[in-house]
């Protein structure tokens, strides 16, 4: 019908009236019936009516509401992913991939490849309005894959899993959050090289330069003294490349590892005079061997768990306050550490804020266990992993990452403004803002308020100045 009206214009009317008449026909024939078409959209999608979807899209594409159309298509395509209500990284990523796989072919065939998944990947029922949660969870999932590389049956399995991560990565708006979260973890370098290569292909050399330098530094500084009989491995990481924060609370180094700690400190200071070592106990891992049970077990623990368990070499029972005093771990974190040990039945918590070793070697405790039919510690596994994440530390780590992201964004925006002004010499305010947005969008979506703050900061620092006689024109200060 629309083509018929266009033909009538060509044959009988002045060609100058064509645009107005076609617009009027579109309003009467399409816009006034668009809600009815949207109501039937979900049914067409559910029953894979591709030809009908193509016709519907061809009609609605003529209406000047592209952004609204895209948002609604994104919403409808994403509705089947409402099961992604858990924020477990693997479950979340699997849910997004399922939605993408199910609908990407339909989008390509029926909607001419419109990027309908972008809105859903960045903002959905699981993440709410936050645009940083998706890249954070995707980075954590990638980190888990890279850590499990030695458990993969074949190298192709890892490559396939990483390729699926990259499918979602291309839709992520805040790619700098993914980069920062990725940079807070240490992983096998062979697996890391593969991931860096994929990121470089997607975002260019500048995006991966920091990650590349991090793992170059890791390889160079993973030093141990050759003449020492030590039972630990250590990595010395440069603070310029590794955004890792030391624990906020004090930590009393257990007497069992204090000699090793002091010997390495002395060795490193002799080898690198003037450098200061900051020990990241909150990122350290330990293995403890049990000697108090008939069956010997190896307990894989965090530093906090190690500090707690080593106190039981000299004590059968300890109160919460005694453990706080002995380890200097904050009470909030220590309660979570003890909860994990009690759940694993390494410790027993029969009385409020009192923790006994299970089983303790004292006669009184043994008799109490027999009387109350309490089971002693027993496991089918010889190596027992107790090192599960602590909520308080996870929340603090997420907050720290977002602070790092915000600080980095300030510098990126400032550097971009200076680079643009150095090339253009003079530029109007609105043009400068648009140019900054276009150059940075590949990494993250900058807020106009942040760009204006950066401009004001550079004016104060005299990197740029206002052109005399104008209010909205800036000039570069050589």
Can you characterise this structure?
This protein is mainly α and 478 residues long. It has helices at 2-12, 18-29, 34-46, 50-60, 66-78, 89-110, 117-122, 133-147, 155-169, 175-182, 189-203, 205-221, 258-271, 303-310, 320-327, 331-343, 363-372, 391-424, 429-440, 448-460, and strands spanning 285-289, 298-302, 317-319, 347-348, 354-357, 383-385, 426-428, 464-466, 473-476. The strands form three sheets. It has a three-stranded mixed beta sheet. Strands 3-5-4 form a three-stranded antiparallel beta sheet. It has a three-stranded antiparallel beta sheet with strand order 7-9-8. Strand 4 and strand 5 (354-357) form a beta hairpin. The radius of gyration is 30 Å and the shape is extended. The model is unreliable at 65-86 (pLDDT under 50).
Helix/strand/pairing category: mainly alpha
Mean pLDDT: 75
Distance between the termini: 62 Å
Pick out the low-confidence regions.
65-86
Please give the largest β-sheet. Answer: 3 strands, mixed
What overall geometry do the principal axes of the alpha carbons give? extended
User: Whole-number radius of gyration?
Assistant: 30 Å
Number of strands: 9
Number of helices: 20
Work out the strand percent: 5-15%
Strand order of the largest sheet: 1-2-6
Order of helices and strands: HHHHHHHHHHHHHEEHEHHEEHEHEHHEE
Q: In which range does the helix fraction lie? A: 55-70%
Summarize the structure.
The chain is mainly α and 478 residues long.
Name some characteristics of this structure.
478 residues, mainly alpha, three-stranded mixed sheet, three-stranded antiparallel sheet, 9 strands
